[in-house]
Amino acid sequence: MGSREVMLVLLCMSSSCLGQAAQGRGSGAETQLISGNGLINLGRRWGSKSPLMHISVNMREITSLKSSFELRTLDPEGVVFYGDTKGGEAWFVLGLRGGVPEMQNGKGNSLSSVAGGPKLNDGKWHKVELHSDGLFVWLELDGTAALMLGLHTNPDSYLTGEMRLSLGGILGSELELMNSLQTEMDGCVRAGNWLNISAPWELGPNEVLHPCFDEIQKGSYFPGTGLALFNSSDFPANQMEDGGAEVKIQGHSLSWSGTVLSLKGSQDEAVLTITANPQTEELIVKFGTQKGSLKLGPHTLYLKLSSHEVQVELGQEQRSNLVDDTHDWVTMWNNGMQLAFGGVPDDSDSKWLEGCLSLIQVQGQDVDLDRALHQDSSISSHSCPFSP
Ligand SMILES: *[C@@H]1O[C@H](CO)[C@@H](O)[C@H](O)[C@H]1NC(C)=O
Ligand SMILES: *[C@@H]1O[C@H](CO)[C@@H](O)[C@H](O)[C@H]1NC(C)=O
């Protein structure tokens, strides 16, 4: 055996070469197939650039250019459905923006986009129907015609070859939408009929299908397995005399368990943690070396961080003021600290939050968890299980 072959054998004993081989050979064995007709949660792995699931079909096998499904979401923005032909040369996207349906399509350099109709992100099931004659795409919502989009293509040239469809994201990460969309979608679809294709869809690599809650209500649901992380400098605090950083969190705190909020510098220990303990019905606030406790209840949690003090209120009656003058915390906040909801980053001793935060506001602005630096994939950013 020559030295080159020896090299090759040695290289192939390393895990990367084995990994490659397994991937190449096992793409059939490892692929998870799921039906397109069932109840599907469109939520996908956080940070993933690819859709939750996709399918490829030969255009010749397509007998119907009609798709219908039911959609339920509280998320204002995200991608529901994507389709393309010729490897992305001509594409179509259906998404929501501000809760309103939006269709975009492109072919080569020509792009078009249309939005309108009722807001769909009300947490109720809506029937959606798309059909195309190759020139136009029509969108019907709950049985009423809502939108139409021209394709501006020579249909014949696009009715051959492969058609790819995907749910919960777009295929081809370089695709430039006409109006860029936050693709993450916290929503569920059911009763899908996708161009009358009966073949199963492929789940994206490393994706798991999350269950859908029976009924939903507004909020962000943390199942106790991870957190959502922001940079505090994205919410600049007022550095004036009686300014500071303000956070407001709504929800029924008696049903919370674990760390609701934490604030820490990049390497340091958390400066501030707010943790709910349902056993003792206490909300424990730690700021530096100081500690305070409030009684959990159906009140809004309000927090104000000023230069050397944090003030935490739970309802009108309860307040805890803790002082730490080792730093100017408002300056630290504005320079960028890790602001986390649902846990403490890189701290194995902390307990992740289990519970629903109905509303999170920082500096008076609603916080959209889909805009986090990082979010654990288990979190439902815009929906909580319904609780009366
Ligand atoms: C849909 O597919 C079924 C078979 O899977 C076929 O019998 C039916 O005619 C198709 N419908 C349309 C409108 O193409
Ligand atoms: C947070 O923002 C600050 C200032 O904008 C920046 O210097 C820092 O790198 C950011 N940190 C992270 C983790 O993105």
UniProtKB/TrEMBL annotation:
Residues 41-212 form the Laminin G domain. One of its GO terms (molecular function) is steroid binding. Functions as an androgen transport protein, but may also be involved in receptor mediated processes. Each dimer binds one molecule of steroid. Specific for 5-alpha-dihydrotestosterone, testosterone, and 17-beta-estradiol. Regulates the plasma metabolic clearance rate of steroid hormones by controlling their plasma concentration. It holds the Pfam family Laminin_G_1. It is found in: Secreted. The keyword Magnesium does not apply. Homodimer. Keywords: Disulfide bond, Glycoprotein, Lipid-binding, Secreted, Signal, Steroid-binding. This is Sex hormone-binding globulin. The keyword Glycoprotein applies. CDD domains: LamG. InterPro entries: ConA-like_dom_sf (IPR013320), GAS-SHBG-PROS (IPR051145), Laminin_G (IPR001791). One of its GO terms (cellular component) is extracellular region.
